[in-house]
Amino acid sequence: MSKIAVSRPPSERTGMPQLGGRRFSASVFLVCVGLLSAASRAIAHHALGGKIPSNFFEGFVSGLAHPIIGLDHFAFIVAVGLLAVGLSRGALIPAGFILTALAGTAIHLLKLDLPGSEIIIAGSAIAFGVMLLLQQRPNFIALTAIAAFAGVFHGYAYGESIVGAQMTPLVSYLLGFSLIQYAIALLALLIGNWTKKKFTRPNFSPMQFAGFVICSIGTVFLTSSLLG
Fold first, then answer.
1. What is the mean pLDDT of residues 52-65?
2. Distance CA 182, CA 185 (A)
3. Local structure of 8: helix, strand or coil
4. Under a CB-based contact definition with an 8 Å cutoff, are residues 78 and 206 in contact?
5. Highest mean pLDDT among 127-136, 189-198, 200-209
6. SS3 203
7. 116 phi and psi, to 5 degrees?
8. First-to-last CA distance in the chain?
9. Of 224, 91, 95, 84, which is closest to residue 151 (Cα–Cα)?
10. Number of helices and strands (H, E) in the chain?
11. pTM of the predicted model as reported, rounded to 2 decimal places
12. ∠84-88-91 over CA atoms, to 5°?
């Protein structure tokens, strides 16, 4: 007696949630948009409520906080770490980003104009998110160069919180945002390496999901920048 082949639904074959690929993606996107829109209005990228740091402690805390409460910055830093997964010199990629971020902050402090910084910051998050989502990336040199280019604009945005500060809080601010960004990127790199070993199936992976979320974050901030 011949056996009748039973076709499994697409969600079981691909490992995607039962909602289905498109509905699942749309649901996550809408949640991200809602949360990020509310968060961006509430915190506005300033750890001290817009106050200029006046001492070492305030400068350091502000430096630690800015790349975290600025979700567009945070998303890009995480993406840099995740895209470095599997590369023997992967830890150098976020280092290059941080060095050029320092240069970008210096540009702002020198009162030089760098137009379109918010658009490029959001665009960089989208671009790196797409790389994660599609599981494709350029080689080490190209990836480092792209991250370094984006770093100038991220650093320029960081400079807004420290303009007018004295030397001591300025130095501590730079130290704070450099340390926290490198720590976030390295943590993302370590988690990414662990995830790559645990999830070896070719279906929708946690890395791709992270790329989707990062794209959503970048899209929210790009839309906000374009619409004013």
1. 93
2. 5
3. coil
4. no
5. 127-136
6. coil
7. 70, 20
8. 69
9. 95
10. 9, 0
11. 0.81
12. 50
| CA 117 distance to own-chain centroid | 15
Report yes or no: 182 and 102 within 8 Å, Cβ to Cβ.
no
Quote the CA–CA distance of 152 and 16 in Å, as a whole number: 38
Would you give the DSSP letter of residue 160? G
Read off the tokens for 179: 């340390």
Token pair, residue 110, equals: 């020198």
- pLDDT tens-digit readout, 152-183: 999 999 998 899 999 999 999 999 999 999 99
Q: How far is CA 194 from CA 181, 189, 206, in A?
A: 20, 9, 11
Give Cβ neighbours of residue 223 (< 8 Å, ≥ 6 apart): none
CA distance 213 to 211: 5
| b/e code 69-95 from CB counts within 10 Å (16+ = b) | bbbbbbbbbbbbbbbbbebeebeebbb
Which segments of 46-91 does DSSP mark as H helices, in order? 56-69, 71-83
Two tokens, residue 34 = 């809602």
Nearest to 194 by CA among 81, 85, 77, 84: 85
In angstroms, the CA 177 to CA 218 distance is 20
